[in-house]
Amino acid sequence: MKIALGSDHRGVEAVRQLADQLQRDGHATQVIAPASGESCDYPEPAYRVASAVAQGRADRGVLICGTGIGMSIAANKVHGARAAVVHDELTAQLSRSHNDANIICLSGDLLGQRLIEKVVALFLKGEFEGGRHARRVEKIAAIERGENPGPCPVD
Q1: Which residues span the domain enclosing 66?
Q2: pLDDT tens digits, 67-87
């Protein structure tokens, strides 16, 4: 699998270690990260990773910043990116099975390296369940197209 990885300065060490592990596991990786010690604003790697995934140059993406939140917000601005903030094994699995996420965003400050590697492995193995979840993912795509995703009962 081709995996695009990106980080800002707060996730650079974690993403480089992750890339090494993924390569040992047989994946092709592209790392978009600053040199150690250099500052980098998270929207820049988020855009490049999300674009690679959305355009099919990468199968999946992994983004690491301080919390994962900024990366997720920025990556989700790219048409075709479905970036989920993930913080444990369950959210990694559900991001794939329920949301068909193609990018996960992780916290370099709050998660240890072993957990990051475990979560990413689950994300990469995960399959989209489809069914009722496909209807919901299509509604996300409708929003991307600027359309109303449909009626929802409101009190």
Answers
A1: 2-129
A2: 999 999 999 999 999 999 999
